[in-house]
Amino acid sequence: MTTALPARATLPGRFVVLGVAGGIAAYKAVEVCRQLVESGAHVAPVLTDAAQRFVGPLTFSALASEPARVDLFDAPEPIPHTTLGRRADLVVVAPATATLLAKYAAGIGDDLLSATLLATRAPVLLAPAMHTEMWEHPAVRANVDELTERGVHFVGPTAGALAGRDEGPGRLADPDLIVDAAGRVLAEGHDLAGVRVLVTAGGTREPIDPVRFVGNRSSGKMGHAVADAAARRGAQVTLVTTTARPAAPAVARVAVETAEEMADAVLDRFADSDVVVMAAAVADFRPKVAATDKLKKHDGVPELVLEATPDILAALGQRRRDQILVGFAAETNELHEHAAAKLAAKHLDFVVANDVSEPDAGFEVDTNRAVLLDSDGSIEELPLLPKTVLAGLVLDRIRDRLTERRPQERDQ
Ligand code: C5P
Fold first, then answer.
1. Is residue 216 annotated as part of the catalytic site, yes or no?
2. Is residue 223 located within the same domain as residue 118?
3. Which of 19, 147, 231, 295 is the least crowded, having the fewest Cβ atoms under 10 Å away?
4. What is the mean pLDDT of residues 116-121?
5. For the residues 271-275, what does the mean pLDDT come to?
């Protein structure tokens, strides 16, 4: 069964500032504007100077709910950035260029759009678009990390065809995905307020000696996306992570390295958790003995004897009381069969399964194509999605489970 993304039920009547920065993808912002208006939002477009080199304000004025604004000093009202910032229920920037990200991260407000971003307390959704080299530049990565840490929402970019016949990550997310993400951000509110969520992220490292380890390619992006989104939705989040990746300030971080350390950190906190999302790629095997000193080449090739690590999720499945347990399954073949077996063997509520042999899905990338297998027997096949969007869908399902359970608890 394939389901569409959730409806845009939260957009009608909401005041959305649509910022358009200067990139070739600015022409696609016209479609974002049209869809936002069609979904019932009141849309106020703001174009940077560079955006107007790609598409004229008249186009936006014709489609939006009010004329496009382009200037900090020449708008209908005297202080347009504070007026817009205060009226906004949401600010969406599509496309968000490298310059826009840098200005916002640094707190520079030298034009109407960047000043509005600083003047608003509304949630902000950025849809970046730029060439792959720019998206992957350390300065841009640092700005994205900084903004994520501050609670700014991102949708995309996705991988695909770019201007100049280039190809790679950096393409603006499709307009319908941006509008769905806008609806989701507005819907988020605090629907997980007070829920204690424990998330694990990253691949564990099992030492061979003090400098070498057995590991895997997990980047921790999926687990971090779940933790950050849960915190934004009001949950009390503890993130047990093996990565140095930043997390939202409200997330309590616990740094671990090995499966054993992760097991201790998770089992210690299990009784005080309502939900556990095991997004970490926990090593299944570790060297039986880790050398205390670095193994020397001249001593010959060492023989590695492996042993099983503790299966954390299986242990949680045994001990669970009324917690919600979510597992991930990274597979390279027979996805449904293997994921269904895990769901049953580990007594989980649902499994997020993905085929890591597929391009753009699974380890290290920003997108994922997942199948959700639920203990109620339902199977939901999702399209290729940014991990941030998939995290939201996983949390929606958790919220629905919690709501189903609460009336039963009251009856007991
Ligand atoms: O069996 P497999 O390792 O593929 O199971 C994947 C799920 O089980 C993931 O949610 C992972 O975090 C969890 N897991 C675990 N402890 C292990 C191995 C996997 O909790 N030793």
1. yes
2. no
3. 295
4. 92
5. 97
Q: Are residues 157 and 266 in the same domain?
A: no
Alpha helices of 88-209 — where are they, by DSSP H?
A: 98-106, 112-119, 132-135, 138-149, 175-188
282 lines ligand 1 (CB under 6 A): yes
Q: Is 327's C-beta closer than 6 angstroms to any atom of ligand 1?
A: yes
The pLDDT value recorded for residue 184 is: 86
pLDDT in tens, 1-12: 333 445 576 788
Number of domain units in the chain: 2
201 and 183 both lie in a single domain: no
Asked if residue 4 is part of any domain, the answer here is no
pLDDT value of position 6: 52
354, containing H or E segment: strand 350-355
326 Cβ closer than 6 Å to some ligand 1 atom: no
Nearest CA to ligand 1 atom 21: 311
Evaluate if residue 410 carries a pLDDT over 60: no
Q: What is the mean pLDDT of the chain?
A: 90
Separation of CA 311 and ligand 1 centre (Å): 6
pLDDT in tens, 25-61: 999 999 999 999 999 999 999 999 999 999 999 999 9
Q: Which residues of 344-367 are buried (b: 16+ CB within 10 A; e: fewer)?
A: eebbbbbbbbbbbeeeebbbebbb
Domain of 392 in residue numbering reads as: 196-411
Name the token pair of 126: 């950025």
366, 387 Cβ separation under 8 angstroms: yes
409 or 40, greater pLDDT: 40
136 shares its domain with 23 = yes
Q: Is 286 in the pocket of ligand 1 (CB under 6 A)?
A: no
Number of H helices, E strands in the chain: 14, 21
Regarding whether 335 and 302 lie in a shared domain, the answer is yes
